[in-house]
Amino acid sequence: MVLILALPVSRHWRLLVFGKFTTGTVQPHILHRKLNIAGEYVQYYVNDISFLADDSLHTVTAPTEQEMQPGRELRVCYSRRDPSRYCVLNFACLYLTPYTALLVILAVVWYAFYLSFNIYRREYRENKAKKKAAGRS
Length: 137
Hints:
The protein is of the alpha+beta class and 137 residues long. It contains five helices and seven strands. Strand 6 and strand 7 form a beta hairpin.
C-alpha cells in the first residue's frame, strides 16, 4: 500500500534526486488556449508559477486542476538542464491530479486481493485450532 501511495512522488524521482530546489511565486489567473485533438482551441484559466533558476526568471504553467491564490509561495524542484521540467512540491500538485485515478484503482485491487487472501488465512488458522482442540480431547 505504501508503494501505491508513493507512485506520484516516484514519477518525479529524477527531479527530486538530481534537481535544484527553489521557491516559486503564484501569478494571477491567465487565459490560456490549447489545441485539442479535434483541432479546436480550448480556453481555460490557469495560474502561472514564476521562479528564479540560474539567474533567470522562468514562468511555468501550474496544474490546471488547482486554483491557487496569487502571491502564494511554493517549493519548486526543477531540472538543472531544462528548467521547464519542474515539479511543484505540495500535496495538491502531487496527488490531486488525473493520475490519481490510477492510484485509486490500484488501491482497490490491492485491497480486494488482501481481503480475499486474508479470509483464507483466517479460515486456515481456525481449522488448525479446531484440529488441535479435537486432538487434545
